[in-house]
Amino acid sequence: MRWQSIFFDLDNTLYSHELAFEKSIIYTFQQRYRTDKKLQHIDEKEWFSTFKHYCDELWKEMEKDTLTYSEYRMKRFIETMNHYNIEMNEKEAKLFHDQYEKEVSKFVEPYTGMKELFEELYQTGVYLGIITNGNRITQLDKWKALHVEKYIPKERVYISEEMGVGKPDREIFTSVLSKTGSIPSRTLYVGDSWALDVQASMDAGMESIYLNTRKEPRQEGRSPLAEYEHFKDAARLISNRIKPGG
């Protein structure tokens, strides 16, 4: 068998985080501000569009390490509110995100073909796991919503908050490889971020599939094993490669 172990990112790799994110952010906005006179005049979908704009703009800063993840989340909320001439502080930004984290798992729906692939991989005996950045409770809630405990038990979900290090630091990958006894050259990682997932996992000696679900232009760096926009296409390749002679 080509791979001894296969690890997956979580958000936008096993389910559409973009869709769950939009639904849960709008839901949180409605729950918190539907009776706020300062915000009642703002259409929630318009507000989300502005919020998403700042998410995307500030994400570039985070990838350059000029913002921490916590600073990124505070700033995207405050900048969005500033756009509507509404002053909000970091305390309210934190409360908003805390509520969002409690809601987001309700909107998680696995990509088509995910469970079929996991069942096939499970039958081969390949070690399956998840390596993800984020808050422990939030990421585990999403894992629970996917109903994949049979294939990836809780102890195989490796979360940056618990690990004390996050992607793109290669240490999170080398640590997981060491914990699981996985040989880097016989390990595959599937993720949606060029910098955080693809390049970082290859730096740790793993093979990588770029699941470019957001159709972003490829940046400079080494080429992954393959690039796909849809999970089902990545699943087809993995399925073919785990077969004898694949």
TrEMBL record:
Keyword Hydrolase set for record? yes
Which InterPro entries does the record match to this protein? HAD-like_sf (IPR036412), HAD-SF_hydro_IA (IPR006439), HAD_2 (IPR041492), HAD_sf (IPR023214), PGP-like_dom2 (IPR023198), Pyrimidine_5'-ntase_YjjG (IPR052550)
Task: Kindly list the GO molecular function terms attached to this UniProt entry.
Answer: hydrolase activity
| Pfam families, sorted | HAD_2
Protein keywords:
Hydrolase
Does the record's keyword annotation contain Hydrolase? yes
Q: What is this protein called?
A: Putative hydrolase of the HAD superfamily
| Organism in which the protein naturally occurs | Sinobaca qinghaiensis
